[in-house]
Amino acid sequence: xxxxxxxxxxxxxxxxxxxxxxxxxxxxxxxxxxxxxxxxxxxxxxxxxxxxxxxxxxxxxxxxxxxxxxxxxxxxxxxxxxxxxxxxxxxxxxxxxxxxxxxxxxxxxxxxxxxxxxxxxxxxxxxxxxxxxxxxxxxxxxxxxxxxxxxxxxxxxxxxxxxxxxxxxxxxxxxxxxxxxxxxxxxxxxxxxxxxxxxxxxxxxxxxxxxxxxxxxxxxxxxxxx
Length: 226
Description:
alpha/beta; 8 helices; seven-stranded mixed β-sheet; globular
């Protein structure tokens, strides 16, 4: 059964205020009207939003947006939708969009479950990126993790055949859960024997680099839709 948005569910995020810098606030004010898409309970016409028809990649939880901007800059032939709930992150990515003149990137500030359920049409995505989601590392909080069977099934319904889902985490037990959940989804096929090499398009973040130097692991998982 696909995810039912009318059911009570456990959210995978906690909305926190966060400090909004002057530059982030200015980016929201000046660039938000063009690059932020409003949440609506209907399939969005992304070709109209971008002014073209191109392969569409969805990123869920882009944080401060550095990785998202780098990937979009490196793939100008594709369009990207970044979904994030936290306002400072939205402001940060909008600032990067302005500085780098990224015409192929739009932002939705809303709950990803609802965005995927209502705004993304079936079989319309070329790919989905979920990089370093909150690990909810305490055992009693594991149920809050984003990558769960019902949500993965929902994502698969929105990915076109041949499209992909790429997850990355630096928490080993979450990586193991991701591998189990993605591997159990019959619509998906693993591109590797277990974990995948980091694709060239995903840059290594400063935080990730520090962790790697300290011997911490990072796990990428890339599955394609059958």
